Amino acid sequence: MNDTPELNDRRQIFGWIMYDWANSAYVTTVVVAVLPAYFAAVVVPPGGVTIAGINYSATALWGFVSSLAAFLVFMVAPIMGAISDFSASKKKFLIICAYTGCLAASLLFFSGKGDVWLTLILFIIAQIGFVGGNIFYDAFLPHIASEDKMDWVSGQGFAWGYIGGGLQLALSLALIAGHETIGISAELAARLAILMAAVWWGGFSLITFFNLKEAQTFEEIPPEYQHLPPWRAYIKVGIVRTIVTVRKVRLFKHLLRFLIAYMIYNNGIQTVITMATIYGAEELGFSQNVLMITLLVIQFVSFFGALGFSKLAELTTSKTALMISLVGWSIVVIYAYFMNSPTEYFILGGIVGLVLGGSQSLSRSFYGSIIPPWAAAEFYGFYSVFSKGSAIFGPFLFAVILQVTGTARNSILALIVFFIAGLVGLYLVDVAQAKQARNIQHLE
């Protein structure tokens, strides 16, 4: 049986897309909608948790643990990518990460009142599995789609991911809203929703693992490491390759420019995503129903945003379409500053959905078109590092401005700085030179 993937093969692309459909359920239900609320309302005692004499609220604990999970992936992502490239084992790493995350997310079903540490540890493991898996999932993109189809395929992945995540979230919210009708408690309904998301992730991933192939072109372990056990030798190779790539990053000047621009504008995007619900609840006083309906609006509109901006990229260029999406994000924060009513919030959700789908899918495909294909997983590991770095400065700026001025409206408007700076950084990326540099075959 030939396991070598063919470019633009419909079965390969379908299998790849289905992983976005599968794991988006975890993000929407577990990470965004259900688990944080359940953790704050049920798991953590009303007075918070005291650690080493310091009292922490549920919100503070959640923030610290989310940062810890991101930091752990930040540290190991490029090394994991380098190992998988060297050993031609992206698919194996993807399977391991996915089912590690699925298992941890499933075990969250057993988290109840007072199970603070159990919940946090399981969430960290699930997050590492999710983010780690995406490194290897993204790294398949240059191997299954030709350069002229990469924007469209990436857009398809995000688009169907939004639909899959949105459908599963709708089922979860319906279960929680109708818990009395079926005779279960609200707590049990929330736990079942989390379990459903984990099962959805693991179940639909089977379609990916059945259809997605990987070329078996792994390299021999260098002679200086052959005396070591294979696992130690692979780790050594992964670390050395990562260090060499960092040292030789000057060879990929315009790729580095894109990564910096991406980190800047993604700071704005991630902050809007993270703070949108609390902005609507605390600053604008909207009900939980308004917030959840808007979240669903964003999920389903993002489907059209991802596909629409992919088509725009075909008519113009990936870089041009991506820059247009950043202009859209600037409009979002200006609009959010002035809005007051739930209707305006719904409209904002629609605009966010359009530009979110476009900016996320085009960032991934644009990056895939300028990286060396022979080290795709390693370079997507760096992409993950810069992506995780995108969740640091935006929320901090938001909080500082809120603290100083007393209104989150000023905080949301200030995020336009990230989108304008990101636009400038993206403008300075020379696509032709970036694509020329990716043909470098060795980094010794």
From TrEMBL:
Give start-end of the signal peptide.
Answer: none
Q: How does it sit in the membrane?
A: Multi-pass membrane protein
Q: What is its main location?
A: membrane
TM region positions: 21-41, 61-81, 93-110, 116-137, 158-177, 189-212, 255-278, 290-309, 321-339, 345-367, 379-405, 411-429
Q: Where in the cell is it found?
A: Endomembrane system
Keyword match Transcription: no
Sorted alphabetically, which InterPro entries does this protein's record hold? Atg22-like, ATG22/LtaA_families, MFS_trans_sf
| SUPFAM superfamilies from the UniProt entry | MFS general substrate transporter (SSF103473)
- Domain of life here? Bacteria
Keyword Nucleus belongs to the record: no
Example of a GO cellular component annotation carried by this entry: endomembrane system
Q: Name one Pfam family in it.
A: ATG22
Per UniProt, the keywords (alphabetical) are: Membrane, Transmembrane, Transmembrane helix, Transport
User: Which PANTHER family has this protein been placed in?
Assistant: AUTOPHAGY-RELATED PROTEIN 22
The protein, known as = Major facilitator superfamily MFS_1
Lineage of this protein's species? Answer: Bacteria, Bacillati, Cyanobacteriota, Cyanophyceae, Oscillatoriophycideae
